[in-house]
Amino acid sequence: MYRAATEPNTPNLQGHERIVAEQNAGATLAMWTGLGSILCLLLSCFLGSLQLGGGRLEISVAILAVLLIASVILYFLPAKRDERWYLVCSLLNHAGIGLAVLLLLDLLGLEIRLLNLAASGLPAAAILFGTVMFYLSAEERLRGKLLWWGLGVLAAICAVAGLKYYFENTEFWLCTAICALLSCSALGALIWANKDPENRSVYQGLAVGSFSIYLLLLAAAAVALILAASGSGSSNRSSRNKKGGLLDKLKGSGDSANGGSGSLLGGLFGVRSTRGVRRRRGFYFPTYLWYYTPYTRYAAINRMAGMSDPERELARERYRRRRMIMLAVVAVIVVAVIGAAVVYGGR
After folding, report:
1. Which of 28, 91, 225, 248 is most buried by a 10 A CB count?
2. Which spans in the chain are helix H?
3. pLDDT of amino acid 252
4. pLDDT of residue 57
5. pTM
6. What is the distance between the alpha carbons of residues 206 and 34, in angstroms, rounded to a whole number?
7. Euclidean distance between CA atoms 145 and 82, whole angstroms
8. CA angle 166–168–174, rounded 5-degree value
9. d(CA 91, CA 100)
């Protein structure tokens, strides 16, 4: 009913235009999921910084286990019948990722400075937003390359932030690296789905990508807990009494909460076929995405009745000018946001 109500506002797409439209819809889904995961992570860290309640970390470990079990059940059961359940899996995984990062910050004894924390999500969010906007507005021959370039830039940000954290040991660089990793997951899911759009779903790619990061962070927290419990940080225990007490409380429960992650990861990636999924062929496609995609826009101009060739060329030229102005604005915003985040948050 909802799709039928919105169908008059949807452009008439034909042939390859509809494939491009599905790719664009997948790109916007990946972008909003990636941005939402970054926001979820930062909000989880913000709420954790309030330090409400004495048993916060114990409760977090229990919630992490519940979220992981629920997500795995949804992935292997209802998602096989309806691919939209993959999106629910992604949401559960991102909620768990936020709690896992908060647990990791506690284990590492890092101070959470709210403004620096907020700035840590801006570089990855700006790159993800800019990559998708350029992807939607790119010529056909450049669309795939733009996704790989964006993925490369995000990987570089993750590596640089990880290196900076090694030397400076601040929550800004650690969260910047994790946010870049989340954005890499979103673009990776889009690239994976676009290679075989008939048999691969961006929903499933987002779910598997979020599973991977979730388990990776749980493993990192487990390693940090084991190292702290084995006495590697005993020389600093007196200066971190608060953190040490929390570690001692979790010493007996941390391994059981994180154990078995590797086998789950293997099971997720072992699922290759999506034939059992009931794919949704009909969807609502926003008109603004159609307008700023060159292939579909040029095809629409060519089908316009009552226009001469010079008038069609003039319409194409107007479209090209508007598209270049939009991309220039996007580029300026991305560069300004990244520069401001690094200058402020890196202090």
Report:
1. 225
2. 2-6, 16-49, 56-76, 84-108, 114-120, 122-136, 143-168, 171-194, 202-229, 241-250, 254-258, 261-270, 287-291, 294-302, 309-345
3. 41
4. 63
5. 0.77
6. 9
7. 31
8. 65
9. 14
